Amino acid sequence: MLLHLLLNTLIVGAGYGLTAMAFRLMYSVSPFFNMTLGAVAALGAYTAYGLISLCGLPMWVGVIGAIAACALFSYFLEAGIYTPMRNHGASSMVLMVASLGVYTIFESIILLVFGPQYQNLGSIQSATTVNLGFASIPLVQALTIVAYFVCFGFLNYLLHHTFIGLKIRAVHDSASLANTIGMKNNQIILLVSVLTGVVLGVNGVLIGYDTGMVPTMGFNLLFKGMIGAIIGGLANMRGAFFGALFLAFAENVGVLIFASEWRDLIAFVIFITFLSLRPKGIFQKKEIN
Amino acid sequence: MKKLILGLCAVLALSACKDEKKNVVQADTRPVIKVGASLPLTGNMSDIGISAQRSLQLALDEWNQRDTKNKYELIVEDDGFDAKKVAMITHKLVNQDKVKAVFTVFSIGANVVSPITQQDKIIHMTCAYGSQPAEGFYNFNNITQYENQTELMLKELKKRGIKSIGMLISNNIGSTQQAEILENKIKQDGTIKIIGKEIFNPGTIDFRMIIQKIVANGEPDIFYVDGITPDATLVSKYLKEVTGKINLTTINDFIETPKRESFEGLWFVESASGTDEFNNKFENKYGEPVFLCGANTYDNLDLFIEACEKSEHCDSDEVVNNLLSVNNRNGAIGKFSIDDQGIVQSEASVKKIENGKAIKVEE
Question: Is A93 near chain B, with CB under 8 Å?
Fold first, then answer.
């Protein structure tokens, strides 16, 4: 049972983690609760569905097309809506409300185009499985775990070992100071929005293949990812990575000890507990006086 | 300029005369009877809501082709499977549109509508589980009741030699009530052991640990799922991943979705639903199969219009009395009667999914 618990923690945590890392990455340069991140992931799933299942294109074309669409969508949202608003001095609250509006419009468009029904990419019963000895899991779940580690490794490398990463961290630490020394903050934010779009696109496609999609999928996805990121701590990528795992573990333990219907309650109790007692999360940033 | 204005006036006057004449020719002096429906056209249950909407339209179109005493108009509103929206829609239909009857599906909506229609003396016909939707003189419920369905489920489980069962129940009023009745029947009977019963929240997409938790107490012969779309699909997926096979049954859930490949070959209990004749008629018109409650909703409107036509002024009390006299009628769901509580009495049947269609299992 313990092995199954750990395995399911890893599978569920990987899904939460990809969203958590995307949320944390975007939040580091544009600190507001961006609801449209959920819409970007949903766009990934539905674009792949449109290209592969409806247009009959090869899977690889559909997957790449979906990820590219997410990157572009994320870029245009940032360039077309949030950057102009930020330039006009919009507060985080105003940006959040705007993102809620964009999310609602986007959800309605998905509803109109694809209908309200539950859809899935390919067959829900995965034919290809990966045997782990004590259990076998569908290939798509194994790929989600791989994507989770690869994404974490890539983003960590990018942020801590490249010049671009240095700039992103500079904007994160102090946007006004970065601006003062001549950095073009908006360009950095646009670049980050593209990266965020790619991560969410990958996650959206994987979810589309694994558990399928409904037009409202974006909100729940973002909410769990955001909780994971906040539990872990928004100071660095490790926080999002481990926070998502911690959340998945707590939910699964909750299912085993209490009842399945308590799963969401457990997530929110942990969320509120952390916000009250340790608002900066597990991995707090060391303050330099 | 004057000539131009005079010319325009002449043209306008002539066209007005022409329209007037046209109106006289096409005027329909029959009284207009408006009927309304609050259905989940969006959200998880939209397949069923859309199917019910089409069924209502089908019944209305058929009646409008006949020489009727009244003219019937249908107003359909989307409640998104949300009780608050149902309440708003019902008040709008009753107070603003002045409908003579309201049609709903599922207890979430029906339980909200029935007190309103009872108070305003408006006919309410639904397809929802439980006795509550039919409470009151003006409310009618057309679905095979829990007792009948769970009785047949228990009988079929025993017939198939099932010794143990695992239950996965969605945390919504209809599913939990039905599961409770089935659970009590199984316990009273005593021949089948309930290995585990897990209640999950609507919207749950990860069932691995829930199934693992039940399997940890010993793998049951069969799992029973009761939820809303896509719960049964996801449970079947995780059952295969955890146990390597899909040993699953349900009451109705397999036909609540058009994507039935996961349920191929599985048996289940279905409440009285469309006859072959009705199903073919529906599929020929809309190109898609009818879902749960579609045939029942067709019968509901059909019954209402017939009762309305029989009465002098389509007065609610007269309509109710006509409806309560329905006995051994052949409708879209087959043979049925309406009891003095306003509940349609019909029979459930055992079916299995073959090539995506629900086929009756012969005794």
Answer: no
Which pLDDT does position B9 carry in this prediction? 53
Give yes or no for residue B3 having a pLDDT over 70.
no
Interatomic CA distance for residues A260 and A252, integer angstroms: 9
Q: Are B209 and A255 an interchain contact pair (Cβ–Cβ within 8 Å)?
A: yes
Tracing tokens 């002098």 back to the chain, one arrives at B312
Whether this model's ipTM surpasses 0.90 comes out as no
CA distance B146 to B154: 12
Amino acid at A191: L
Single out the residue of A247, A220, A219, A250 nearest to residue A231, CA to CA.
A247
The mean of the pLDDT values for chain B is: 88
A128 touches chain B (CB under 8 A): no
Backbone CA torsion sign across A18, A20, A21, A27: positive
Q: What is the reported pLDDT for A60?
A: 93
Element (H, E) at B212: helix B208-215
Q: What is the pLDDT of residues A158-169, one digit of tens each?
A: 999 999 999 999
Pairwise CA distance, residues B105 & B278, whole Å: 19
CA angle B340–B341–B344, rounded 5-degree value: 90
Domains annotated on chain B, with CATH: 32-143+274-345 (3.40.50.2300), 146-270 (3.40.50.2300)
How many angstroms separate the CA atoms of B141 and A148, rounded?
Answer: 50
Q: What is the pLDDT of residue B333?
A: 93
Asked if A220's CB is within 8 angstroms of B237's CB, the reply is: no
The answer to whether the CB atoms of B261 and A118 lie below 8 A apart is no
Chain centroid to CA B93: 19
Is the pLDDT at B325 greater than 70? The verdict is: yes
For residues B53-91, b (16+ Cβ closer than 10 Å) or e, as one string?
Answer: bbbbbbbbeebeeeeeebebebbbbbbbbbeebbbebbe
Q: What are phi and psi of B123, to 5 degrees?
A: -70, 135
CB atoms within 10 A of CB A272: 11
Instruction: Mark yes or no for CB contact A212/B41 under 8 Å.
Output: no
Question: What is the Cβ-side half-sphere exposure of residue A160, based on CA atoms within 13 angstroms?
Answer: 9
The minimum CA-CA distance between A91 and chain B, rounded to whole Å, is 33
Q: How far is CA B16 from CA B19, B20, B307, in A?
A: 5, 6, 40
- Beta-carbon count within 10 A of B190 CB: 7
Q: Which amino acid is at A38?
A: G
- Is the peptide bond between B289 and the residue preceding it cis, with omega within 30 degrees of 0? no
Task: Decide if A122 touches B, using CB distance below 8 A.
Answer: no
Residue among A5, A11, A212 minimizing CB distance to B230: A212
Q: How many CB atoms lie within 10 A of CB B113?
A: 29
Per-residue confidence at B6, pLDDT binned at 50, 70, 90?
low
Contacts B200 to A, Cβ<8 Å:
260-261, 263
Cβ distance B110 to B133 under 8 Å?
yes
Dist CA B76 CA B62 (whole Å): 17
Among A111, A123, A212, the residue with its CB nearest the CB of B42 is A111
d(CA A175, CA A184): 10
Using one digit for the tens of pLDDT, what is the confidence trace for B18-74?
Answer: 444 445 556 778 889 999 999 999 877 888 899 999 999 999 999 988 889 999 999
Q: B188 in helix, strand or coil?
A: helix
pLDDT tens per residue, range A160-196? 999 999 999 998 888 888 888 888 888 999 999 999 9
Residue B257, judged by CB atoms within 10 A of its CB (0-12, 13-18, 19+), counts as buried
Ordered domains of chain A (ranges, CATH): 2-277 (1.10.3470)
